[in-house]
Design a protein that fits this description.
Layout (H helix, E strand, L loop, with lengths): L10 E8 L11 H16 L8 E4 L7 H9 L5 E3 L7 H14 L5 E8 L1 H5 L23 H15 L3 H15 L13 H5 L3 E3 L2 E2 L9 E9 H4 L7 E10 L15 H12 L8 E4 L4 H10 L8 H5 L17 H4 L7 H13 L12 E8 L4 E8 L5
């Protein structure tokens, strides 16, 4: 049996970039943002579009995503992957790219995404039906927010978690965003602001919900051998894992335990690391409850203890664990699917290029993607050369 541990340190992220973010206007398409992000990431790596022979991506804007994107970018890849697990897809693509490069299926992999969700929708997201016909459909839930609200309510019931705990997550994200010049929301935000904001699906207010923005991102991955000669310090892939336990929230076995409880331990084992070894954490924060659930399931604190863990600025600048250092989906950007931006920020932190929000001594980063309604969970561990 092939041992996945062989992938540790064999590939590296060598280029990252965002497209223009926020609200790009009606004359810019999702494919325009794909091209913009791809060009910037390749330039970051010191490579060209002609070097790319592996293409990875997902989109809600067009079918056959990698075929459409390859044509638009002028790439004829010998390997492509359009795995679609919602916002977690791009963290899964990193794992798949590492395996593909190791197997000789490609040498330079481009992971890319673009979305004009805000411009296309006027800043609103339609809701009120399930993704698939299910037991939930007759109740006309407001999805996906109602699904996450169910998880939050159950966490409150079982562990005494409060709305103040959720507000701590939103405020921490905003404090990080205030250090990020390209973050969408940079005005001051307090606990009282979150608690007093409009209720969307109890107990989640509008400030417990992610932004609706435009934006794209790209990540370039290649072999560790080739990475040594490129423009930026390599950010090595150390290990990762994927799991999915349900699609509809009514089929989630326990609303307070996600499949991150499976992917976290597997990823740490493959990387030869523990939660205590992680210097910076990037979590898919579509809703504030996500951060609490994932901190627990990934092993940073005990189940039910995340409320206290984040209190008092625990995951904010100056806290005991830097989480979502770009401002996250809550304050930096969230163009429909957020996973690729987790990778971009982790790479910048490990390269020491995060400016005012740089975490001192960052050598190991954990990235965790979420898709659907707490449905698909993907964890990856990244590190600089010091941890090989």
């Amino acid at each position: 049996m092939n041992d996945e541990r062989r992938l540790r340190g064999g590939t590296a992220i060598v280029g990252v970039a965002e497209s223009d973010l926020g609200e790009v206007g009606p004359d810019v398409t999702a494919l325009d943002l794909v091209a913009q992000a791809a060009g910037r990431a390749l330039d970051d790596a010191g490579l060209t579009i002609g070097d790319v022979d592996g293409l990875f991506g997902h989109s809600a804007f067009f079918p056959m995503p990698t075929v459409v994107m390859a044509e638009h970018l002028g790439i004829r890849p010998r390997h492509s992957d359009s795995t679609a697990t919602g916002g977690s897809s791009f963290v899964a693509h990193l794992r798949h790219a590492a395996a593909a490069i190791d197997a000789g299926l490609c040498e330079v992999a481009l992971i890319v995404y673009g979305s004009t969700q805000r411009s296309a929708s006027g800043g609103l997201v339609s809701s009120g039906r399930s993704f698939l016909p299910s037991y939930e459909t007759p109740f006309r839930p407001r999805l996906p927010v109602s699904a996450y609200a169910l998880a939050a309510a159950r966490h409150f019931h079982e562990f005494g978690t409060t709305r103040e705990h959720l507000a701590e997550v939103a405020v921490a994200a905003r404090r990080w965003a205030r250090l990020n010049p390209v973050a969408f929301a940079r005005d001051d935000l307090t606990i009282d602001d979150v608690l007093g904001s409009r209720m969307v699906s109890s107990p989640l207010t509008v400030r417990d919900c992610c932004l609706v923005t435009d934006g794209g991102g790209a990540v370039v991955v290649t072999s560790a051998e080739r990475a040594r000669d490129l423009r930026r310090p390599p950010v090595y892939y150390l290990g990762g894992a994927e799991a999915q336990w349900h699609m509809n929230i009514s089929q989630m076995p326990d609303l307070t335990v996600t499949a991150a409880s499976e992917t976290g331990p597997r990823a740490f084992e493959l990387a030869g690391l523990r939660p205590a070894d992680v210097d910076v954490v990037q979590l898919y924060d579509a809703f504030t409850i996500n951060v609490l659930l994932f901190l627990e399931d990934l092993g940073f604190c005990e189940k039910g203890a995340a409320g206290d863990f984040v209190s008092g600025g625990g995951v904010a600048p100056g806290g005991h664990l830097p989480v979502n250092t770009n401002g996250g989906g809550l304050s930096y950007c969230h163009p429909g699917m957020y996973g690729i931006f987790l990778l971009i920020e982790a790479a910048r932190q490990l390269r020491g290029e995060a400016g005012d929000r740089q975490v001192a001594g960052a050598h190991v980063a954990l990235v965790h993607g979420n898709g659907g309604m707490l449905s698909s969970q993907v964890t990856a561990l990244l590190g600089d050369a010091s941890v090989l």
